[in-house]
């Protein structure tokens, strides 16, 4: 029997209904939310994401402001803008679109964002606090995976989870969040010798390696839950492996780290790419925007 495919868009819509109610309550209390995103230059993917964010925020009645800096901006100029937004009490959430120009260190810029306004949860302080099980704002993608697991009502206590990919923003936080929920976690990456030996033992397999088609049917335990976090752009090819051309141009598509067609025949539950973890991650950004405003208010009261 083919795997049940999780509809991330449907789950995101249900989550957004709750976020919308919280936003309305806070606005009625005189605490409107404002998410400010920073974009340096005009990277195509970031421009598309920014437009999508603006639409999502409008639907939820969150004010969205895009600060668009010139491509030639320096690290000092970007840092000054982040400092300005940190100090602005009307800004309740800040996010920084990547990639940045090569001369600007993204980690340094992420570190500058106030942890209480860091709605992506990428400030090292926020990532570090995940390890203490007391995050201010946890990374959105890691939270999205946990939300999907919760939606499936998986009994994580004692469950064997394998996380393939141990990046600082996604894989490692996912491993920690699952372990904190008393799952038994095995951490792997694409270079793990005999990767299938480990992944075939997983009741829950989370893949965030950034390598298209890494996980195939032979990597998956029959009936396992497989969550594909990967987002990769690959060329479309014909039966002979040659690139498909449309009007003389190559055509690409978005795929995950999991070979969807082969794994669907083995897994019990599977998230697609696109339409799986992605929409839930975007909604987690908006939920974090609400949480950020609440925690800023609590911090102000405590001071």
Protein model, in words:
This protein folds into two domains: 26-114, Rossmann fold; 140-277, NAD(P)-binding Rossmann-like Domain (Rossmann fold, 3-Layer(aba) Sandwich), CATH 3.40.50.720. It is built from ten helices and 13 strands. The protein has helices at residues 8-28, 44-60, 75-87, 106-112, 124-131, 140-151, 171-180, 195-199, 260-264, 277-302; strands at 4-5, 34-40, 63-69, 93-96, 160-164, 184-188, 204-207, 225-228, 232-235, 245-246, 249-250, 252-255, 269-270. The strands form four sheets. It has a six-stranded parallel sheet. A three-stranded parallel sheet has the order 3-2-4, with helices on both faces. A two-stranded antiparallel sheet has the order 9-12. The protein is globular and about 55 Å long.
Give a short overview.
With 303 residues, the protein is an alpha/beta fold. The protein is 41% helix and 17% strand. It has helices spanning 8-28, 44-60, 75-87, 106-112, 124-131, 140-151, 171-180, 195-199, 260-264, 277-302; strands at residues 4-5, 34-40, 63-69, 93-96, 160-164, 184-188, 204-207, 225-228, 232-235, 245-246, 249-250, 252-255, 269-270.
